[in-house]
């Protein structure tokens, strides 16, 4: 069985993090807008999101149930990886990728109910959440998975953290379309965006991690781990 096509980059050596870095950046900068069947990758930019939930409760001053449906993530083509760890012969890891993005936006339908700091919030419609100058860390461990006599890497303990310099929010049709209340709430959200993001960052990271683990699992389920790299 052929695991590579003529268009694929030359495989890296096990643990050659400089080489892995270059391939990851080539994929995002040059091929993010297209499917890559040989890597089992669907188009990354824009990335379709069927559903994403951010549920924040407990004693937090931001207590919301926020659901996004049929959204698009724009900006992943501008992601640049700056450091890679792991990916040696021992697939158990740990493995880690650090990246930066100038801007990434989640755009589409939403519904929200709850409170933000001291104010109640409710609505459904179109939204745009944009993060700028984002520093991201993706980390995970590997677990051997046997299939057709070969060893593949399953992904476990996946974690994602994102730290943006700024965040901007716009929610349309808040408060049943009351424009004055909606405009005031959007202004309030952006005036307090740093505090709001800090309170919701753990929930946001988890929601995005749930999305990206599926993408990474698809890549490593396509080929046996040993076939992804070269010995020498």
Task: Describe this entry's structure for a reader.
By secondary structure, the chain is of the alpha+beta class. It is 25% helix and 45% strand. It is built from three helices and nine strands. The chain has helices at residues 17-30, 179-191, 193-222; strands at 12-13, 47-56, 62-74, 80-85, 95-116, 119-147, 150-163, 166-171, 229-230. Strands 2, 3, 4, 5, 6, 7 and 8 form a seven-stranded antiparallel beta sheet that branches. It has a two-stranded parallel ribbon with strand order 1-9. A hairpin with a 2-residue loop joins strand 5 (95-116) and strand 6. It is elongated. The chain starts with 11 loop residues before the first strand and ends with a strand. The model has no long low-confidence stretch (mean pLDDT 93).
